[in-house]
Amino acid sequence: MEMHAFGTLNYIVLLVYLTAVMLVGVYFAKRQKSVDDYFKAGGRIPGWAAGISVFATTLSSITFMSIPAKAYTGDWTFLIGQYVAILILPFVFLYYIPFFRKLNLTSAYEYLEKRFDVKMRLFASISFMLFHIGRVAIITYLTALALIPFVDINPLTIVFLIGVLCIVYTFMGGIEGVIWTDVIQGIMLSLAAVLIFIVICFNVDGGVTEVFSMSAEADKYFPKEQFAWSWTEGTIPVLVIGFLFASLQQFTASQDVVQRYIVTDSIEETKKALITNAKLVAVIPIFFFAVGSALYAYYTQNPGLLPGDFNTGGILPFFVISEMPAGVAGLIIAAIFAASQSSISSSLNSISACFTSDIYHRLGGETSPKKTMFVARSVIVVAGVFGVIASTYLIMSNESELWDAFNSLIGLMGGPMTGLFMLGVFVKRANANSALAGVVASVIAILWVRAATDLNFFFYGVIGTLMVVFVGYITAPLFKQNAVEDVNKSLIAQNS
């Protein structure tokens, strides 16, 4: 495939963006005077900014590129999942936001010790940290992999730019720097999607009307066969169930999102954050799918512009580099970097919050503010370096089929965590030992299903979550209550 020169102007635009991100970290570095500032922003974040940050955090660069590719080659069925995430928000408003705000925890997993015991806290926290180190590596790797065929930038340079710069501005600015860079990046992602769609429509004979009519004629929106039930394919009923539990995991048990609940100064601002996120989720993903439809129309009318052996997974960056004007292309590539960095920086800060609270402080580390800040920043560097090294290894070894395996592990690690929080909040008779039994049963069940069946990976999180709740409920009478569990019941009473 032809390599397109990135061009001086595109390099300048990309460099300006990367410099701006660094300056945000430098600006907020002077505000990081305590651990509360570093992990909670001292409650200074307005709700709208926290909401954009949640949106940017949950939208990675892979989503930015894969959604148009899905709409180009397939249909719009994955759009259903975005609206499922909106539907769970009343449930989160009613039960989880007041709960986390009242407890005012640095790490979400502190609750699991209060409700159950330290084993559950450590299990959930360590699972989260390991998962997100892997997430940093894989997002960085797949971003570089997607851009390699289209830009004359060495893949290791891409890894360096994404990984190292994330480490630096997250290290300096804490969660406040992360959130405000997320705001910049979220706006860039949204504007890039709208801009690309408009540009393509101007290049399609017949314009926007032709774009949507061609997709309708090809039955590329919500084909009838996608409404059928399937145990192995990602049809609409499977997507609804899978995204329901994936969204529950994100909004109720994942530190990188839950941490946004405590960076505002009131519960009203926290709710405003999720409403802002919901508004963005309701609108922006439509443009990503519309971009895919526009690309389908454009290349159907101009088939000679695509190389014969073209991998359609890279259709978006291919169009950007080959068809967009110089400077604008650099801005779009910067948006792809932005999508990657917003996810990675949130992962790094939340890993640091978990390690500092759940490992360092819990296991008896020195709690002086100076020492704690040193540990918090050191963890960001170590986690980031591990992610960069792992990304470099993946590039050098040319790993394949990594994304599906990664998605399947979300159920393995995220399902039990989600189940633990549901068990703690809604099953009053559950106790530490029944929770442990639920986690063990959950992990065994998911591993067996993954190894012995062809069940679609969207079901893994469902099985993981429900197994913890079910086994935790039925085994609770087998174990004796203790004094810690009496305190746990009082926490539930306060929340109800």
From TrEMBL:
<keyword id="KW-1003">Cell membrane</keyword>
<feature type="transmembrane region" description="Helical">
    <location>
        <begin position="228"/>
        <end position="246"/>
    </location>
</feature>
<keyword id="KW-0739">Sodium transport</keyword>
<feature type="transmembrane region" description="Helical">
    <location>
        <begin position="6"/>
        <end position="28"/>
    </location>
</feature>
<keyword id="KW-0812">Transmembrane</keyword>
<keyword id="KW-1133">Transmembrane helix</keyword>
<comment type="similarity">
    <text>Belongs to the sodium:solute symporter (SSF) (TC 2.A.21) family.</text>
</comment>
<dbReference type="InterPro" id="IPR038377">
    <property type="entry name" value="Na/Glc_symporter_sf"/>
</dbReference>
<feature type="transmembrane region" description="Helical">
    <location>
        <begin position="156"/>
        <end position="175"/>
    </location>
</feature>
<keyword id="KW-0813">Transport</keyword>
<feature type="transmembrane region" description="Helical">
    <location>
        <begin position="457"/>
        <end position="479"/>
    </location>
</feature>
<feature type="transmembrane region" description="Helical">
    <location>
        <begin position="48"/>
        <end position="67"/>
    </location>
</feature>
<feature type="transmembrane region" description="Helical">
    <location>
        <begin position="374"/>
        <end position="396"/>
    </location>
</feature>
<feature type="transmembrane region" description="Helical">
    <location>
        <begin position="79"/>
        <end position="101"/>
    </location>
</feature>
<dbReference type="Pfam" id="PF00474">
    <property type="entry name" value="SSF"/>
</dbReference>
<feature type="transmembrane region" description="Helical">
    <location>
        <begin position="434"/>
        <end position="451"/>
    </location>
</feature>
<feature type="transmembrane region" description="Helical">
    <location>
        <begin position="319"/>
        <end position="339"/>
    </location>
</feature>
<dbReference type="InterPro" id="IPR051163">
    <property type="entry name" value="Sodium:Solute_Symporter_SSF"/>
</dbReference>
<dbReference type="InterPro" id="IPR001734">
    <property type="entry name" value="Na/solute_symporter"/>
</dbReference>
<dbReference type="GO" id="GO:0006814">
    <property type="term" value="P:sodium ion transport"/>
</dbReference>
<feature type="transmembrane region" description="Helical">
    <location>
        <begin position="408"/>
        <end position="427"/>
    </location>
</feature>
<feature type="transmembrane region" description="Helical">
    <location>
        <begin position="187"/>
        <end position="208"/>
    </location>
</feature>
<dbReference type="GO" id="GO:0015293">
    <property type="term" value="F:symporter activity"/>
</dbReference>
<protein>
    <submittedName>
        <fullName>Sodium/glucose cotransporter</fullName>
    </submittedName>
</protein>
<keyword id="KW-0406">Ion transport</keyword>
<keyword id="KW-0472">Membrane</keyword>
<feature type="transmembrane region" description="Helical">
    <location>
        <begin position="280"/>
        <end position="299"/>
    </location>
</feature>
<feature type="transmembrane region" description="Helical">
    <location>
        <begin position="122"/>
        <end position="150"/>
    </location>
</feature>
<dbReference type="GO" id="GO:0005886">
    <property type="term" value="C:plasma membrane"/>
</dbReference>
<keyword id="KW-0915">Sodium</keyword>
